[in-house]
Amino acid sequence: MASKITVQMIADAAGYSKYVVSKTLNKQPGVKESTRNKILFVAEQLGYFNNNQEKRAVTARNDGFVLVVMPDQRYQNAKSNYWGKVFDGILSTLEQLNYGSVVISSKDHLVDKIKGDSLFGIITVGYIPTDMLLSLSNLYPVPFVMVDHEDDIIQADRIFVDNFQGMYKLTKHVQMLGHKQICFIGDNGFAPSFYDRWLGFKEALEEQGIFHSNQRNLLELDYNSNGIEQEFLHHINRWEEERNIPTALMCANDEMATKISKVVIDKGLSIPSDISVTGFDNIDYKMKNIPPLTTVQVLKEAIGQRAVSELMWRLENRFFPNERVQIACELLIRKSTAKPKK
User: N or C: which end of the chain has fewer CB within 10 A?
Assistant: First the structure.
């Protein structure tokens, strides 16, 4: 056994518990045959077996496998409410096509351990550092598909939600309700999707001539921080002192909108009577006293499915220019928005 490949690494890459992987590798009973096959497949691709050990022939799969690379940071990992569903869409589609998959994170030290002989494509999900992308592209000359990320150095097809149009349409809805004092709450440096949502918001305000400045219409909070609520409380207190509280708060995603809503309600303000609040992504964060969020529906599993279909297309069309695919999204109007007070 290669000393650097551990049971935990195989468990993470295969998506099973360390206990199940250990039972499989030690040929113990109690593991379903399909699960056993997946685990042995991943173990082989990671180079777990040495030349003197009996290796399982890769016969249960089509011609190869896909390497799926996930971030390993707060809000962007396989366990998150958003990215977990994208991830599930990728793996379920590969399973339906009878292709294998190996999953690593951006913090794993497995980049050069993958057996590339039967690797035919790489799908990255969310932000992956450039140095890791370069290592992958140098080691494995296979097609890349990136989900919600792009890097000028790497030749890849990219899959995005149409974040600009989604937020643009949502902002138009809020304007039609009569709101003119509107603030976008996000973290534009966190991800391209957040920045595109800000641009859609800004475009809608500029068309109506009610965009003032970044200082008045944009509030950036540190999305990686544990103190979003406290940071926002500071700003809403300042707005109260200045008697300049926006009548509508449009947040970069539902999680941020839920945290913002809690602060608004704790301040004794009502949603939507005093302040309308919107989110994005359609993630169900049910909290007491917070009305259902007006948001934008993002078909997260479909993003993962589309990433796989793009990879399959690319394998048959290697000489076509790289594509940037945008998936449309729709508004979900709920009880967190209403006409502003006169």
Answer: C
* pLDDT tens, position by position, 216-266: 899 999 988 888 999 999 999 999 998 889 999 999 999 999 999 999 999
- Do 228 and 148 form a contact (C-beta atoms < 8 A)? no
pLDDT in tens, 123-174: 999 888 898 899 889 999 999 999 988 888 899 999 999 999 999 999 999 9
18-25 vs 7-14: helix crossing angle, rounded to 10: 110
Q: Are 285 and 255 in contact (CB under 8 A)?
A: yes
The pair of three-digit structure tokens given for residue 284, joined into one six-digit string: 């169900």
Residue 26 DSSP code: T
146 beta partners: 124, 158
| Residue 227, token pair as written in the block | 């103190």
| C-alpha span between 27 and 56 (Å, rounded) | 12
Contact (Cβ atoms closer than 8 angstroms) between residue 129 and residue 28: no
Exposure string for 128-140, b = 16+ CB within 10 A, e = fewer: beeebbeebbeeb
What is the C-alpha separation between 309 and 94, in angstroms, rounded?
A: 9
Distance between CA 151 and CA 269 in Å, rounded? 43
Number of Cβ within a 10 Å radius of residue 252: 29
Q: Would you call 72 helix, strand, or coil by DSSP?
A: coil
Helices (H), 46-191: 83-96, 130-139, 163-176
281-298 pLDDT tens trace: 998 777 777 899 999 999
What does the DSSP assignment read for 97-124? Answer: TT-EEEEEETT-S-GGGS-GGGEEEEEE
DSSP line for 274-302: T-EEE-SB------TTPPPPBEEE--HHH
